[in-house]
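User: Let's play a game. I give you a shape written as tokens, and you guess the letters that built it. Ready? Here's round one.
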């Protein structure tokens, strides 16, 4: 008998493989990131194709193979149709699954990351149109789950509690530097506003449903987005 196992997974991507098959990269609750062959998925009558679309949350029965595991059966539990019909949400979801695929190791289960992806997609599905800040919050939370959370409470130089005013985000050291210890000429230290610090702290602790309710001015959202992106690129 074939050796099979069942996982609940979010489809991160799907690419062609050969004439009729596909390759699906998924992040599962039980086994972390997996790469599975989807046989015959490119055929018009394929029963798997609709269930293995990117972003779908699906129950998958996988079959172990000598070289590759493959999808024996799949049933989608959530298709996130609103995300797929909205270009802004589609871009936000696409960035999240791309980061999850790039930054996680195969076969290393982290339930926190699965739940983070699931909660993010569910929140994005129901979110209003002006939730541009959510992708930055997802990135920050993913970095935290991977062990790269920035220090936002105390100065990394003198260990003093961070007070409002002229603090900087040190990319190299991974957190905030207080006004007294800051070195404005250091290219790795970014100026960061008090409002950005407050929102970054809130993002690390809060859930997506609460974060989605926060109205953030475009200038502040842009500042947070830039800080998180630079922090991400410095670490990876």
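Assistant: Ready! My guess for every position:
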């Amino acid at each position: 008998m074939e050796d099979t196992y069942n996982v609940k997974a979010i489809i991160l991507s799907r690419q062609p493989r050969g004439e009729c098959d596909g390759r699906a990269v998924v992040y599962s609750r039980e086994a972390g990131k997996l790469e599975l062959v989807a046989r015959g998925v490119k055929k018009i009558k394929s029963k798997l194709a609709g269930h293995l679309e990117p972003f779908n949350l699906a129950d998958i029965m996988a079959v172990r193979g000598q070289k590759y595991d493959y999808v024996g059966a799949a049933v989608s539990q959530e298709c996130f149709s609103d995300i797929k019909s909205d270009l802004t949400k589609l871009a936000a979801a696409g960035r999240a699954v791309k980061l999850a695929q790039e930054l996680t190791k195969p076969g290393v289960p982290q339930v926190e990351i699965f739940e983070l992806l699931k909660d993010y997609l569910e929140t994005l599905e129901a979110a209003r149109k002006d939730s541009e800040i959510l992708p930055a919050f997802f990135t920050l939370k993913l970095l935290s789950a991977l062990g790269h959370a920035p220090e936002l409470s105390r100065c990394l130089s003198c260990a003093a509690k961070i007070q409002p005013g002229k603090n900087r985000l040190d990319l190299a050291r991974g957190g905030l530097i207080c006004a007294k210890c800051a070195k404005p000429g250091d290219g790795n230290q970014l100026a960061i506003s008090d409002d950005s610090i407050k929102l970054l702290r809130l993002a690390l602790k809060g859930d997506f449903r609460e974060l989605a309710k926060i109205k953030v001015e475009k200038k502040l959202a842009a500042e947070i987005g830039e800080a998180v992106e630079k922090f991400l690129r410095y670490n990876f």
